[in-house]
Amino acid sequence: xxxxxxxxxxxxxxxxxxxxxxxxxxxxxxxxxxxxxxxxxxxxxxxxxxxxxxxxxxxxxxxxxxxxxxxxxxxxxxxxxxxxxxxxxxxxxxxxxxxxxxxxxxxxxxxxxxxxxxxxxxxxxxxxxxxxxxxxxxxxxxxxxxxxxxxxxxxxxxxxxxxxxxxxxxxxxxxxxxxxxxxxxxxxxxxxxxxxxxxxxxxxxxxxxxxxxxxxxxxxxxxxxxxxxxxxxx
Length: 234
Known about the structure:
The protein is mostly helical. The chain has one domain. Helix content is 79%, strand content 0%. α7 runs antiparallel to α8. The longest helix is centred in the C-terminal third of the chain and has 49 residues. The radius of gyration is 25 Å and the shape is rod-shaped.
């Protein structure tokens, strides 16, 4: 029985060590937008992160398309409506009020702000500010949109670079978290019966509980620090 449990611990350690890295997965999803994982199968945190990244990418594409339409000589409202139709947004139905405002001469900045999600909608809110400045001051909208697009692309490149740099520390933290399981396997192979102590005595249960709690806290803290680094502004 002890050998079986030790083997299971070893298998769990190997999976933790060699399993897919979240940062690498997100980076791959960013660079390959057509290869996506169905959201219902992902954890809630992963779905939110994927949706945020989809909105950020769509905002960049919207700025590029809008700039091209404006350069072609179309009016701002017509250019925005056509640009929206060429971008694959995560929630196209939410943009209907924006399209209507662009075609009918409505309040486009307010519509942009209204449709922008709380997470990932920074590009749309910046575009709304540019539109407001263009209408109020008379500044060239095309130049402002180009600047917003360049800023968003730089921010996305920064996030990708940070995610790639954090892949190593995250893998190291997961490897360190798996070392206790490898230690149990080694002790079991030497005939020390560590599981009998851990599960068969009160001090052993106390050590096991404390070890698991500290291991989990270490993984959580590493993930917390890496997430903060990814979300820091460029």
